[in-house]
Amino acid sequence: MTDEQIITNQTEFSEHRPLFEDSINPENKNNDEKQRPWPRRKKALVVFAGVFVLSMALLIAIVPRKSRQQPIDDDTETPAVVEISNDPLQQRINRLKTELESADPSKSNLVFPLVDMNIKLDD
Amino acid sequence: MHRLLLPLLITLIAFVATSQNAVVYQQDSEGDETTVEATTSASVVDQTQAALEYRQELDRLRNLYRLQIEAYRQSEREYIIAKDQYKNLQTLRLLEDAVAASQRVMADRNKVLITYLEITMVTLKSTEGVNLEFKNEAVASLEEQIEVLRTHGENIQKSQDREAVAAMVEEFDSIKPGIINSAYQGTSLVSIGRLQTVYDKAQIILADIQTTQKEEEVSELRKAALDRAYAETERKLDEVKELLQVINENYGKQENFSSASYSNLSSRLEPVYTGLSQTVAYLDELLEI
After folding, report:
1. Same domain as B54, residue B188
2. Opening angle at CA B159, ends B158 and B161, nearest 5
3. I need a surface site. Which of A92, A112, B196, B248 has the fewest CB within 10 A?
4. Residue B35 lies in a domain
5. pTM higher than the cut 0.80
6. Mean pLDDT throughout B83-100?
């Protein structure tokens, strides 16, 4: 069989060719990757990181600043959220609930300051 | 190309999902704020001018207190370091540093105590439901102690050497029991007064509910249920009243106030608080019957 015959008879050629074998020469493939400045995986990672950083920055901007503020200390009295009702009696009971909450004797907001009452230079 | 697009697509989906959550969260918190604002504004309408002034004064004092306690913590650290260094090395320069650090920490402690007593006094003045005689006595005692501390603060500023600082330590030891006594006397009354106020208001609300429901035409069955509910609520209120009477009587007999006596009072107020919680829950239910 001459070279010419091999080239022209493509059907027979494909039958002889092992299935799923990459036709690219491994040496050439390595050369190709070295020549490319940004390999695909790296490129994808950079894009992914970029989008992630952008989305985080947008998220931080969206979430209201107020909701992230922490109370300075426990002494601050925060009004309890009470369901709003049109009934004046219900409104009074709701206000009473809030008042009762702040009257809890186990949660006094007038705790004596934690200061050293025995400061002495000479012990 | 599809390898590049896949992570991009996943990121975009994640971003859209989190953004939506953030928007929902923002809307929720805005809703909550509206509820709080409405509740607060409703109560503000009811407040008298005096109560508003007390509120403003308390806010000012609390901010001042935070700054002063921060300054105290810093000078306390410096005092501990200076004292340790002098103890270990015993040089004249370190003695000077230790004297200065002691003077600073005593001055800062004094400021904290003055502001704390002022906060207690304004809180007591603004608390309804306190026996007027007890209140006036406690306010006078607090005013006296604030003055004592102011004088002590002036003396601290004048003390420059080791002997003068030692004299200030002695002076503070002599005024300390009075400060502690006044502070706990004030806080005890505030705790009693807050619960007494809730009791008084609960009683008025119960009477108003009874008046409103009497005007309505109700079936015999509902009337019987209401009568039973009123009786139970009144019984609970009577229990609270008795407990508060005993606590007020004991307070009148008490001469010395301290951390221990306050802790004892808190545990005696617990059943009052529980009883009032139950009463408020009953009042809530009464509107539904």
Report:
1. yes
2. 140
3. B248
4. no
5. no
6. 96
Total domains present in chain B:
2
pLDDT score at A38: 59
For the segment B86-112, the average pLDDT, to the nearest whole number, is: 96
B163, B192, B221 - which closes a domain? B192
Interface membership of B174 toward A (CB under 8 Å): no
A109: its two tokens: 């907001």
B256 and B226 together in one domain: yes
Between A31 and B204, residue with greater pLDDT: B204
B187 and B60 fall within a common domain: yes
- For the stretch B22-38, pLDDT in tens is 443 444 444 444 444 45
Flag whether residue B14 sits within 8 Å of chain A, measured between CB atoms. yes
Q: Answer yes or no: do A112 and B99 touch at CB < 8 A.
A: no
Nearest CA in chain B to A120: B169
Decide if the complex's ipTM is over 0.90: no
Residues 6 or more apart whose Cβ sits within 8 Å of residue B261: B184, B188, B254
Quote the CA–CA distance of B118 and B142 in Å, as a whole number.
8
Whether residue B265 lies within 8 A of chain A, CB to CB, comes out as yes
Task: Please check whether residue A119 is in contact with residue B105, taking contact to mean a CB–CB distance below 8 angstroms.
Answer: yes
B22 touches chain A (CB under 8 A): yes
Do the Cβ atoms of B266 and A81 come within 8 Å?
A: no
* Residue A58, pLDDT score: 76
Which residue of chain A is at minimal alpha-carbon distance from B12?
A: A51
